[in-house]
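WP5 quarterly update. Target: Polyisoprenoid-binding protein. Source organism: Puia dinghuensis. Length: 179 aa.
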Amino acid sequence: MKYFFGILGAVLISITGLAQVYKPVDQGSSVEFVIKNLGFNTKGSFSGLDGSIRFDAKEAEKDSFDVSINAASVNTDNDMRDSHLKAASYFDVEKYPRIRIVSTSVSGADRNGHYTFNGKLTIKDKTKDISFPFDATPDGDDYLFKGSFTINRRDFEVGGSSTISNSLIVNLTVLAKKQ
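Structure tokens (predicted):
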């Protein structure tokens, strides 16, 4: 009997050490971008988060992210510009409805919640390596992830040559609910 309880205890301890699964949600989250257009900053956002996050604050090597957003949700507070961004020359949302980011590794777990995301960003079926720092803050049973990175829109064939800057900043604030 002692043997049985010993094994049961070991199993329970090992289960609690596993990375938890979280689901990103729109409410409390934001996926925003800033790009220069004619020398002025233009801001926009996306919604429609979906995916899965496996996260263990103490063991980053076990962490994984597979998250996407709805490309058709692009919003710059200008309906005409938003329609243009949804067209084939930019995001081509009918052919490529999702923008996806998938981790290949997460590193740097520290007691202050600072990590480094390494992975792949896919826009319009073009996939590029990406790496950026992020913070993970517990929110009850959930987590709030915040990070920022810069990409070149031309790497993903988003828009042609124009008065719009090639580089843009993406700011992520993702609330993930424990599953």
